[in-house]
Write a structure and sequence with these properties.
The complex is a heterodimer of chains A (about 400) and B (about 400). By secondary structure, chain A is mainly α. Chain A has 16 helices and 1 strand. In chain B, the strands form 3 sheets. In chain B, strands 5-4-7-2-3-6 form a 6-stranded antiparallel β-sheet, covered by helices on one side. Classes of the chains: A mainly alpha (about 400), B alpha/beta (about 400). Strand 1 of chain A pairs antiparallel with strand 1 of chain B.
Chain lengths: ~400, ~400
C-alpha cells in the first residue's frame, strides 16, 4: 500500500486518481485466496473497476447463462416457501399510496435527511477542508442522494436477479414465491426512483464495486450463486443500509417509504435462507460448498471495505483530499460505522444458518472482526415487524 | 497523416462498439476526465403518471355512473376506488377539483341523495347543473365519463337538519334543489312525525331537476310530503305555481301550503332568489334562527401570486407548532399540508370555514368572496385555504 501510494504520487496529477483506483482494484483481487473465487469475480471486476461499464452513460448488456427450470407437474415441494408466497401476496402494497404530497426540502435543517454527525466534519477539518453550515447540508444531501441512488441501482439488479432466480430455482413453491419478489423489486425501483427523481433531483452513477457484485451474479450460470449473491449478500447489504437511514432520517416520506421496503426485504432474505440451507447441506460437494463460503467471505469484505461513496468524493473532494483520506473519513464516520454494524448483524447469522460459516472460514471472519455478530438471529427467525423494532 | 486516417477508421469498424467505449473510458480516466458522478433529474413522466392525488388532502374518487337529469344537468355517482365508504350528512357538499388547461379549478356540488339511498352503498351522488360560461360545469356535463378519477375534498358545510322538526320547509331555485332533495329523503325516512314541504322554482318543465324522484317521494308519503313546482315560463295547462320565486310569489305559494306550527326553513338557490325568500320569511315573522341558507357563492378568483415569494408561516395546531414555507404559487393550506402540518380544512375554496384560524401575527391576503362574516374578520380570523401570506405569519387553530 505504502509502495503503491508513493508510486502513484510520482504520476502527473490528473492521472493520479485513476491509477490509485486501479491499484485499489488490483489489491482486492490480489488478496483473494481461492482461484475459483477469483475466476468467478475477476471478469466482472475488470468490467466494473477498470472499464467502468456502469458509468459509460449507455445501457449495459450483460449476458446471462442460466438454465430455466420447468416442471410440468407443479409439485407442492416446499411448505415454508408456500407460506412465504401466501404472506407475500397479503403483504403487497401500492407505491402510489405513500404520502408523496409531502414536500421534501433537502436543505431544511429542521427536517434533516440524515443526522448532522453522519459524516465526521471535525476529521474533514483535520484534513484541511472546512465546510460552512450550508456546505455541510449540501454534503449530507449529496450523501443521501448517493445512498438512495445505490439502493435504486441495487434494486434494479435485484429485479432482474429475482426474475432469473425464479426461472432457475428447482422448487415450484419457490417459483410461485419468486413471482411476488419480482413484483416487490419492481415496486422498490418505482418508489426509490420516484423519490430521487421528484424529491432529490439527483441520481448518482452506480458505484463500481456494487456493479462488480451485480455483474458477477447476473453472468454466473449457477442458480445458487445468484441466490447467495442477491438474496443473502445484496439484500443483506440493503437491509443494513435501509435500516440505518430508516432509523436516522427525520424526513417523513422517506421514513414511510423505507418502512414499507424493509418489510418486503425481510421476506426476501428469509427466502434466500430457506432455499440455500437445504441446497448447501444436501446437494453440494464439500469443494463446492467451500467455494461458496470463500465467495461469500470475499464479497462481505468487498462490501465492508469498498462501498465508500467515491462518487461523492469525485464530486466534492477529488482535488482536496487523497482517496485514502476519504476512505479513512468515511470508514470512521458514525453514520457509516452504524451502517456496517447493522449490515453484519443481519448477514453473519444468515451465513451461519445456510452453512457457510464452517470452522475453516471462522478464523478469517475473526480476523476481520466480524465474529461478534455470529450468534444473532437469522432471517427465517425474524419478521419484518421485528426488524423494524430492532432498529428503534 | 492523411493517408493513415482511413486505416484508423477501418480498424475502428472492426472493433465492437463496447470495446471502443471501454477503451475511451480507460483513456479518459488517465487524462483526468472521469465519468460524471451523477445526473440531475427532473420530474419524469412515469412519476407524474402515477400521481392521482397530487392536491394535498384530496382523495381520488372514481366516477362509477353518470345519469343525465336534464339536458343541462348530470349526476355523477362517485366511489372510493379503495372501497371505503364516503361518509357525509344530507345537505353537505363536496368540492370537485379539476385540472383544465393546467389550472386547478374547484367547485362545490351538493350530494343529491342521503347515504342511506346511495347506490352502490358507500358512494355519493353529486349533481352538476351547467352554468353559462362555467368551465367546470361545462366539462363535467360534456366530457365526464365512467371510470374518470376526480380529486375531491369534503364533505363540507353545516346546511344540515338538527333534531326532528315538526315541519320542514325546503325552498329551492334551480340546482338549489340538489341538497334539498337529499334532506327530504332523509327527513321522510328518519322522522316519521315530520311534515316536509318542498317548494321549488324553475324556468320551464325541462329544467326541473329530479322531477320523477320528487313525484315518487310524494306518492310514497301522501300527507307528509307536499310538493309544489313553480315555473316562470309554464307550459299550457300547467297546474303548478307561476312566476319567479320572488318575495311575492313565495309568499303566495307558502300561503297555499297551509303551514301549521313551528317550521324550519332550508333555502338554497341563486343569490337574488335567496334574498327574496329571506325577506318574505322575515316579513311573515319567521325568526332568523329558523332560516337556514346554503349560498352557492360565485367561483373564487385565483389571486395573483404574492410578489415576495416564499414566506414563513407558523401554525399552532393541536398543541404543536409547525413552521412551514408558504410558497408563492400555493395557498397557506396547500403549503402546510404539503409540508406535513395537520391543518384543519374541508372545502378548500373558502366556502365552509373549516380551515378558519386566528391570525396572531403577520399578514395574509384572501380570495373573495368567502364565507367569513364581518364579525369574524374583525376578530382576526382568516381562511388558510384561500389565504396567501404576505408577511411571516403566526396562525392558531381553535381547539377541536
Amino acid at each position: 500500500m505504502m509502495f503503491n501510494e508513493r508510486l502513484v504520487n510520482l504520476l502527473p496529477g490528473r492521472m493520479r486518481n485513476q491509477v490509485a483506483q486501479w491499484f485499489e482494484a488490483a489489491e482486492i483481487f490480489g488478496e483473494m485466496r481461492d482461484p475459483k473465487v477469483l475466476a468467478a469475480i475477476g471478469p466482472a471486476g475488470v468490467r466494473g473497476l477498470l472499464l467502468q461499464r456502469g458509468k459509460q452513460g449507455v445501457p449495459t448488456q450483460m449476458p446471462a447463462a442460466h438454465k430455466a427450470h420447468f416442471d410440468w407437474r407443479y409439485p407442492h415441494d416446499n411448505a415454508e416457501m408456500a407460506s412465504l408466497y401466501r404472506r407475500a401476496k397479503e403483504g403487497q402494497w401500492n407505491g402510489d399510496s405513500l404520502p408523496w404530497h409531502i414536500d421534501v426540502d433537502p436543505f431544511n435543517p429542521e427536517v434533516p435527511l440524515i443526522p448532522a454527525d453522519f459524516i465526521d466534519t471535525a476529521k474533514l477539518a483535520s484534513f484541511g477542508v472546512r465546510l460552512d453550515g450550508r456546505e455541510e447540508l449540501r454534503l449530507r444531501y449529496s450523501l443521501t442522494a448517493w445512498m438512495l441512488s445505490q439502493f435504486l441501482h441495487g434494486e434494479q439488479g435485484a429485479l432482474f436477479a429475482a426474475a432469473q432466480v425464479t426461472e432457475a430455482v428447482q422448487f415450484f413453491d419457490g417459483k410461485m414465491y419468486g413471482s411476488t419478489q419480482v413484483m416487490d423489486e419492481g415496486r422498490h425501483v418505482e418508489v426509490f426512483h420516484r423519490y430521487i427523481d421528484t424529491k432529490l433531483n439527483k441520481l448518482y452513477q452506480i458505484n463500481d464495486n456494487l456493479y462488480v457484485v451485480i455483474d458477477s451474479l447476473m453472468t454466473d450460470g449457477r442458480w445458487d450463486m445468484k441466490f447467495l449473491g442477491m438474496q443473502i449478500m445484496v439484500e443483506g447489504l440493503a437491509l443494513g443500509a435501509f435500516g440505518v437511514i430508516y432509523k436516522q432520517t427525520k424526513e417523513p416520506l422517506l421514513k414511510e417509504l423505507l418502512r414499507n421496503v424493509i418489510q418486503d426485504e425481510a421476506r426476501h432474505v428469509h427466502y434466500g435462507v430457506v432455499a440455500l440451507r437445504e441446497q448447501f447441506r444436501d446437494h453440494l460437494t464439500e469443494r463446492e460448498r467451500s467455494e461458496r463460503e470463500d465467495w461469500a467471505y470475499e464479497v462481505a469484505l468487498l462490501m465492508r471495505n469498498r462501498f465508500m461513496a467515491f462518487e461523492v468524493y469525485d464530486e466534492w473532494f477529488a482535488h482536496r483530499l487523497t482517496r485514502s483520506q476519504w476512505r479513512e473519513l468515511v470508514s470512521t464516520s458514525p453514520g457509516m460505522m452504524d451502517f456496517r454494524h447493522v449490515m453484519f448483524v443481519r448477514l453473519i447469522p444468515n451465513l451461519r444458518e445456510i452453512g457457510l460459516m464452517s470452522p475453516r472460514i471462522v478464523p478469517h471472519y475473526e480476523r476481520a472482526g466480524l465474529m461478534r455478530y455470529y450468534h444473532g438471529r437469522s432471517a427465517d427467525q425474524l419478521t419484518g415487524e421485528q426488524l423494524l423494532t430492532d432498529l428503534h | 497523416m492523411l493517408k493513415r486516417t482511413p486505416w484508423i477508421e477501418r480498424a475502428k469498424g472492426l472493433v465492437p462498439a463496447q470495446w471502443r467505449r471501454d477503451a475511451r473510458m480507460v483513456l479518459d480516466g488517465l487524462a483526468g476526465r472521469p465519468p460524471p458522478p451523477y445526473w440531475s433529474t427532473g420530474t419524469s413522466s412515469r412519476a407524474e403518471a402515477s400521481q392521482p392525488t397530487a392536491l394535498p388532502g384530496a382523495r381520488a374518487l372514481r366516477v362509477a355512473a353518470l345519469t343525465r337529469e336534464t339536458p343541462d344537468a348530470v349526476s355523477l355517482t362517485l366511489v372510493d376506488p379503495r372501497g371505503e365508504a364516503i361518509v357525509y350528512r344530507p345537505g353537505q357538499f363536496f368540492t370537485l377539483a379539476l385540472r383544465l388547461n393546467g389550472e386547478v379549478l374547484r367547485r362545490a356540488y351538493s350530494a343529491s341523495l342521503p347515504m342511506a339511498e346511495a347506490m352502490p352503498p358507500g358512494s355519493v351522488r353529486v349533481t352538476i347543473k351547467r352554468v353559462a360560461g362555467g368551465r367546470v360545469s361545462q366539462h363535467l356535463n360534456e366530457r365526464a365519463g365512467a371510470g374518470d378519477i376526480i380529486e375531491v375534498f369534503g364533505p363540507s358545510g353545516s346546511f344540515v337538519v338538527e333534531g326532528a322538526p315538526t315541519t320542514l320547509v325546503l325552498v329551492g331555485g334551480g340546482s338549489g334543489a340538489t341538497p334539498l332533495l337529499a334532506i327530504a329523503y332523509d327527513a321522510l325516512a328518519r322522522f316519521p312525525d315530520t311534515r316536509v314541504v318542498f317548494l321549488v322554482g324553475n324556468r320551464s318543465t325541462g329544467d326541473i331537476l329530479f322531477r320523477d324522484e320528487l313525484a315518487a317521494l310524494a306518492e310514497r308519503h301522501p300527507g307528509r310530503f307536499a310538493l309544489r313546482h313553480v315555473l316562470s315560463v309554464p307550459p299550457e295547462a300547467w297546474g303548478g305555481g307561476v312566476g319567479m320565486l320572488d318575495a311575492e310569489t313565495t309568499g303566495r305559494e307558502l300561503d297555499g301550503l297551509s303551514l301549521e306550527g313551528a317550521a324550519e326553513y332550508f333555502v338554497c338557490g341563486p343569490g337574488p332568489m335567496m334574498d327574496a325568500v329571506r325577506q318574505c320569511l322575515r316579513g311573515r315573522g319567521v325568526d332568523a334562527v329558523h332560516i337556514r341558507e346554503e349560498r352557492f357563492s360565485s367561483p373564487v378568483h385565483t389571486a395573483a401570486e404574492q410578489p415576495g415569494g416564499d414566506v414563513a408561516v407558523t401554525a399552532r395546531v393541536g398543541g404543536r407548532s409547525y413552521t412551514v414555507v408558504n410558497r408563492a404559487h400555493e395557498t397557506v393550506l396547500e403549503s402546510a399540508l404539503r409540508q406535513g402540518a395537520p391543518m384543519p380544512f374541508s372545502c378548500t375554496m373558502g366556502g365552509c370555514g373549516a380551515c378558519r384560524m386566528k391570525l396572531r401575527e403577520g399578514a395574509m391576503t384572501m380570495e373573495e368572496p368567502n364565507c367569513l362574516s364581518a364579525d369574524e374578520r374583525s376578530q382576526g380570523y382568516v381562511l388558510t385555504c384561500i389565504g396567501r401570506a404576505t408577511r411571516a405569519c403566526v396562525l392558531e387553530a381553535e381547539p377541536s
